[in-house]
Amino acid sequence: QQPVQSPQAVILREGEDAVINCSSSKALYSVHWYRQKHGEAPVFLMILLKGGEQKGHEKISASFNEKKQQSSLYLTASQLSYSGTYFCGTPEINSGGSNYKLTFGKGTLLTVNP
Amino acid sequence: DAGVTQSPTHLIKTRGQQVTLRCSPKSGHDTVSWYQQALGQGPQFIFQYYEEEERQRGNFPDRFSGHQFPNYSSELNVNALLLGDSALYLCASSYPLGSDTIYFGEGSWLTVV
Questions:
Q1: Predicted confidence band of residue A54 (pLDDT cuts 50, 70, 90)
Q2: Which among B100, B96, B113, B108 has a CA at the least distance from the CA of B30?
């Protein structure tokens, strides 16, 4: 099932903070975050794993609440370059126990203005 | 280190035609997946290839088919194109099979008229 993201859109001024939420109706063992700029492909931001391990390479933080089946992405002191659509993705596990695909939410459009 | 590369970047086809999209995975990656992203939506999984076989398939009709070559590159073929097939087609690669992290290519924009 598709994860639900909120808000659908947010407009910020440079330097302001934002939180993007992602919730799922099923148990999760990880949540993946991507950012997509207009006309470009999604770029991997971060993966949050069960147990608290976090893997990523951007100066963006996130949380993962396994019990609530939710994840939140925190963008602090936003920069113009943060503008784009943010997607969370949740993995589907095949019969062999391996992750084989991500199911993405509909995205959150973040606009950072000067 | 080259990332995932796709070709062509843009193409326009007529309804009923067939199209082939190509993908070279990131160096060292042996698993390739294809996603379709319609305007305003998140990417949707089409299928995954590993060891030259289709391993998993999403909810897409048989008009969508693929292939993986011994060098891990892949093709996506769509037959009998419909207007609704207009979308961004993304190739994603990963290693090993079942890896938590996938990397997307820049995509191929397909417009069906």
A1: low
A2: B96
The pLDDT-based confidence of B1 (bands split at 50, 70, 90) is: low
Q: Is A81 left (phi over 0), alpha (psi -120 to 50) or beta?
A: alpha
**Which of B41, B60, B108 is the mutation pick for testing A, counting most A CBs within 10 A?**
B41
Q: Provide the 10 A C-beta neighbour count for residue A42.
A: 30
Contact call for residues A104 and B42 (beta carbons, < 8 A): yes
Interchain proximity B58–A87, CB inside 8 Å: no
Measured between alpha carbons, how far apart are the two ends of chain A, in Å? 37
Question: In whole angstroms, what is the distance from residue A50 CA to residue A16 CA?
Answer: 29
Q: What are phi and psi of A111, to 5 degrees?
A: -120, 125
DSSP β-bridge partners for residue B50: B31, B53
DSSP state of B52: T
Q: What pLDDT digit, counting tens, does each position of A43-53 carry?
A: 888 888 876 66
